DNA sequence: TATAATTACGAAATCGGTTTCGTAATTATA
DNA sequence: TATAATTACGAAACCGATTTCGTAATTATA
């Protein structure tokens, strides 16, 4: 079966091209009886309007772009689900671009998005991104942009994030309350706003604690991009002469590496080292030992960001810069930081 | 800055529209000096050709669709990475659709893909999908389709899968070799070809074992769609009068549920129950206890499927039906099935 | 009943590129 | 030097829909 154009289809059902087009778009100019006929015949003859011809004429693509660093991370997987749920309900299509945390990739995608390919962009910026010039370009082309999770200061648009500072604070405080005296933050990159905030929160709690008890100490380590390098850095921290008795892992990948490192080095969690991780890992509960997490509302972050984006798409005068949503994460206490071994766990070991 | 059309841009640089178009597409009709000028000015004036006008005329969308059940699963996350890597290198865009394992969703996406929106489709079919009529429609519209991971019998096109039958066999055999006498397969859906094959392999190993030793037994349970229902079914299996001493979990989600259930019920892995799971879980190594997995080459499955799809897109006479790639999974033995507790693990506990 | 307003539809312009085809200028061949 | 071939570019048709605008038929108002 060859593809039908509107012209061929109109001829086949003995109507004019414009009547068909209007009928399918539910125009008030067409009587309902004619509409029904057209819709029925379109179904029967399998006529699907060419979306690009339509996009060209209407200057709407019914498509949004999602630009994010990776999709391997469970956070981003969940966020995509949230975005997709909203897009699907709105009848929009979703293009996915992975920057792999490289600015050049991100810029190339953004530039392409300025061509009219998409009606809006959701972005979680790469680790390398410091300037917002590529985004400004988009904005001046009237393509709305919404940040989710990782935003960029110095660029005014909507953002949906979690309470990173507060959570950094809570994580540190939690470790201290559970008896840690020397806590360390393992962060993935200083450039990222979220890591900076988490670190700032961590520091705030640490300083507060030190002001009350001078025997408490702490440190911050920024891990390299490369997997092996990060692994080595973690090992160094753990084997240091004043190695920490508590660690805050600023990302899921860091937490996994810490677990692997402690296992290799024979450091016992939680006896020798307590761990809290920023993570949405589904398996946190069943890790060895179960992992205390700061769990982000990943799905809702994606969903909310998409909802805001659609508001801007549907109402061009909508001022994105006013929307700054904070969806709180929550601390889920488990064995890795509390040392508590639950009854049923004991039985099973 | 308003969006530039090719007409405006051509006038601005004092050339004809066709010269500009040809220059940007690197036509042999245009001298290299003119090309350079045009490209430089396009960069300077930020002229981006409208992709939809181009698609309309050229009848190419430079876009592929990926239709899959979920992206929460780590298998699909990795597969998307593989697909994206190939697409990006080819200069293609990737539309993602999540069927949530519902046939109706899948069909709606596929129907839309037949409109010329995409040049090709990669699909991992939903659990509910039994008929291939929606795919046939696509095929007759000359949109190439490639299955990855989950395929559909009765529809002739390329597929990239893993050795499911063999792995089902290996998983069962591994449990038996490690002393299990009553093994159970927990499968997510009988309709799925991959689960069927895994189950068939499991059965083959089981029957072979029984023929040598009649005291060996086994069973198969098909879990419901709903999370709570599956959880209850797993609990039932574990509390049954002749509950198994070995379990093969046919999917990542099942493995997680088994771990949670055993923890609740106080069943000790691996002492009372040995577990093998089909999974690409990054955290398998650090679970409590570490999980023996049949690990699929998820990234490569996505990558290979995309490569085959592009062959068909670039060469329409390419016969997809001849391509049936099997990328083997491998058994990664860990504590959950062997009972071995490694030295460093002991230290850390 | 005559006129105005409304309804239902069709012809043609349009969206922004690409491509065919024609032509002037240049280079190669006889 | 005359003719053929090649090169470099421009005018206009075209892709397949949408939308404006015009018109005939119908209904409402005076």
Which helices and strands occur, and which strands form pairs?
The structure is a homodimer of 349-residue chains.
Chain A: H1 6-12, H2 17-24, H3 32-45, H4 51-58, E1 63-68, H5 74-90, E2 93-98, H6 103-117, E3 120-123, H7 133-140, E4 145-148, E5 158-161, H8 164-177, E6 182-187, H9 193-212, E7 217-222, H10 227-239, E8 246-249, H11 252-265, E9 274-278, E10 292-295, H12 298-314, E11 324-326, E12 330-332, H13 335-338, H14 343-348
Parallel strand pairs in A: 1-2, 1-3, 3-4, 4-5, 5-11, 6-7, 6-8, 8-9, 9-10
Antiparallel strand pairs in A: 10-12
Helix pairs in contact in A: 1-2, 2-3, 5-12, 6-7, 8-9, 10-11
Chain A binds a DNA duplex (30 and 30 nucleotides) through residues 5-7, 15-19, 21-22, 25, 27-31, 34, 49-59, 116.
- State the helix count of chain A: 14
Low-confidence stretches of chain A: 342-349
Could you name the CATH class of the largest domain in chain A?
Alpha Beta
N- and C-termini, Cα separation of chain A: 63 Å
CATH A-level architecture of the largest domain in chain A: 3-Layer(aba) Sandwich
Strand line-up in the sheet with most strands of chain A: 2-1-3-4-5-11
What can be said about the biggest beta sheet of chain A?
Answer: 6 strands, parallel
Query: How would you sum up the global shape of chain A?
Result: elongated
| Strand count of chain A | 12
Q: What is the CATH T-level topology of the largest domain in chain A? A: Rossmann fold
Percent in strands of chain A: 15-25%
């Amino acid at each position: 079966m060859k593809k039908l154009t509107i012209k061929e289809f109109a001829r086949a059902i003995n109507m004019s091209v414009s009547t068909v087009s209007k009928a399918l778009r539910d125009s008030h100019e067409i009587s309902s009886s004619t509409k029904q006929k057209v819709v029925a015949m379109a179904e029967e003859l399998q006529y699907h309007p060419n979306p690009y011809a339509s996009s060209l004429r209407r200057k709407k693509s019914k498509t949004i772009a999602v630009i994010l660093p990776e999709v391997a991370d469970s956070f981003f997987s969940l966020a995509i689900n949230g975005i997709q749920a909203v897009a699907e309900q709105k009848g929009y299509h979703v293009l996915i671009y992975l920057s792999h945390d490289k600015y050049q990739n991100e810029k190339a995608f953004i530039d392409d998005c300025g061509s009219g390919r998409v009606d809006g962009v959701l972005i979680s910026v790469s680790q390398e991104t410091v300037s917002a010039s590529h985004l400004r370009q988009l904005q001046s082309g009237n393509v709305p942009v919404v940040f989710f999770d990782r935003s960029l200061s110095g660029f005014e648009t909507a953002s949906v994030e979690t309470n990173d500072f507060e959570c950094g604070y809570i994580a540190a405080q939690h470790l201290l309350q559970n008896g840690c005296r020397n806590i360390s933050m393992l962060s993935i990159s200083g450039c990222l706003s979220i890591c900076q905030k988490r670190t700032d929160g961590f520091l705030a709690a640490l300083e507060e604690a030190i002001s009350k008890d001078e025997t408490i100490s702490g440190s911050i380590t920024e891990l390299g991009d490369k997997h092996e390098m990060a692994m080595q850095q973690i090992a160094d921290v753990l084997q240091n002469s004043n190695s920490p008795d508590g660690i805050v892992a600023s990302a899921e990948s860091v937490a996994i590496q810490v677990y692997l490192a402690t296992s290799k080095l024979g450091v016992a969690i939680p006896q020798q080292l307590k761990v809290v991780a920023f993570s949405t890992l589904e398996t946190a509960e069943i890790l060895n030992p179960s992992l205390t997490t700061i769990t982000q509302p990943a799905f809702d972050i994606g969903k909310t960001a998409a909802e805001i984006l659609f508001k801007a798409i549907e109402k061009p005068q909508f001022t994105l810069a006013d929307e700054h949503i904070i969806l709180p994460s929550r601390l889920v206490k488990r064995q890795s930081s509390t040392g508590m071994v639950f009854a049923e766990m004991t039985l099973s070991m």
